[in-house]
Design goal:
GO molecular function, one term: transferase activity
Bound molecules: adenosine-5'-diphosphate, 2-acetamido-2-deoxy-1-O-phosphono-alpha-D-glucopyranose, magnesium ion
Protein name: Phosphotransferase enzyme family protein
Keywords: Transferase
Helix content: 40-55%
CATH class of the largest domain: Alpha Beta
Pfam family, one: APH
Shape: globular
Radius of gyration: 21 Å
CATH topology of the largest domain: Aminoglycoside 3'-phosphotransferase, Chain: A, domain 2
Number of domains: 2
Length: 371
């Protein structure tokens, strides 16, 4: 599709969604790896400006956009009620879908792309990197609270938007197939990274085994708890709203904990090419553990809390393996901005896994402190 054609699809979507006011313009927004995100401006009668988030959902990743939007609609309505019961502000503390002019959650354009919109959460920011330990703590209480609020959500009504999303053994199988197929001829270049994964074969099964034994419960989880999926309020500094609800599905609480650690408890960016800048921070791990447990308000079992370090290592290893799989397969999943982008991302994750292994006892001591 040419740029012009793409712009007409954006305008087609804007014309079908029930935005309020006079259309002013739109531009690309944010740093997500999956959806195409835009901010759209509308002028109100009193002259003020109102912004909306418009997203083209990634249909390759999400095979059932209608089911996905049914999940998000159900979850946001549920959260809205809970927030209002607690005298919170449901216009900012949860995503609010802007429906189409005919009342649907999403719009399918003339070439089959799916679009949806949310009210823009103003006076709040998303961080792509931890700038202060306090922000990280505030993101932890927000994700913990999200877990708490959804603990009585009817899980059986949720569609599985990406099957086996955090089934690490299944990811491992895909990875091995990608190595064998080597369709882009990149295998020789990444033998060290492949060996890194293979050496951790047994670890890959630990959480799934605990689940099968009945010692790890399935809960409604977010499954993509990186720092830039929580909005931090400009005034209070608190994590006011958890966003990016595409992957809300039944999952393990320790993976929600772990994915935040993978992204946030690092001294470097997820795609930092200079690995000397990428170190696991035990201090940030400590702060996040404290905040997440406070947010969960006693809803987790002893065993889940005990498995926090395992969740952190699992999500980091799994994510590194996913980046490496995508690199081997020719970068078809994660959005890239340079040729080795996925390889750089994979290497930061493996650096963090090594650091966690070195800090394993210290991580356990931190968790014991809050248990
Ligand atoms: P992706 O799945 O591609 O990561 P997200 O839903 O996380 O997409 O959105 C990408 C970015 O857009 C977020 O990191 C955030 O900066 C911004 N964003 C998303 N929803 C909102 C919203 N309702 N209000 C303000 N900013 C938002
Ligand atoms: C993707 O959508 P985004 O950018 O928040 C990915 C996550 C990865 C993350 C790595 C649906 O998250 O699973 O952990 O990139 N989301 C999906 O940064 O695959
Ligand atoms: Mg996101």
């Amino acid at each position: 599709m040419t740029r012009e054609e793409y712009c007409s699809r954006i305008e087609e979507a804007i014309g079908q969604i029930a935005f309020e006011g006079k259309f002013i313009g739109y531009k690309p927004y944010g740093n997500g790896h999956i959806n195409d995100t835009f901010v759209v401006n509308f002028q109100q009668e009193d002259g003020s400006d109102r912004r909306y988030i418009l997203q083209r959902m990634n249909h390759d990743t999400f095979k059932n956009p209608a089911g996905l939007m049914e999940n998000i609609s159900g979850v946001t309505e549920f959260l809205k009620k809970k927030i209002e019961e607690n005298n919170g502000d449901s216009s900012r503390e949860t995503l609010n879908i802007v429906r189409t002019k005919d009342g649907k959650d999403y719009f399918k354009d003339s070439i089959g792309s799916y679009w949806r919109s949310y009210v823009f959460i103003e006076d709040a920011v998303c961080f792509d990197k931890v700038e202060s330990p306090e922000d990280f703590y505030n993101s932890a209480t927000a994700f913990g609270n999200f877990q708490y609020l959804l603990s009585d959500y009817p899980a059986e009504t949720l569609h599985e938007t990406i099957p086996d999303f955090h089934n690490t053994p299944a990811r491992f199988e895909n990875f091995k197939k990608a190595v064998e197929a080597d369709i882009k001829g990149r295998r020789a270049e990444v033998e060290a990274e492949i060996a890194f994964v293979m050496e951790r074969d047994a670890f890959m099964y630990t959480l799934m085994d605990a689940y099968k034994e009945g010692s790890l419960p399935l809960r409604v989880t977010h499954n993509d708890t990186k720092l830039n999926n929580v909005m931090i309020d400009n005034q209070s500094g608190k994590g006011i709203c958890v966003i990016d609800l595409d992957t809300v599905m039944p999952g393990f609480s320790v993976n929600d904990f772990g994915d935040s650690i993978r992204f946030g408890a690092s001294t470097g960016d997820e795609d930092e090419p200079d690995l000397s800048k990428v170190n696991f921070s035990l201090e940030l791990f400590d702060i996040y553990t404290k905040g997440f447990l406070e947010g969960c308000k006693g809803r987790l079992t002893e065993k889940e809390i005990y498995l926090f370090p395992t969740g952190a290592k699992m999500m980091t290893l799994e994510c590194g393996m996913r980046f490496l799989t995508d690199y081997l397969q020719g970068d078809t999943y994660f959005r890239i901005h340079r040729e080795t982008h996925n390889l750089d991302r994979c290497r930061t994750q493996f650096k963090l896994v090594s650091d966690m292994e070195k800090n394993w006892d210290a991580m356990k001591t931190v968790v014991d402190k809050y248990r």
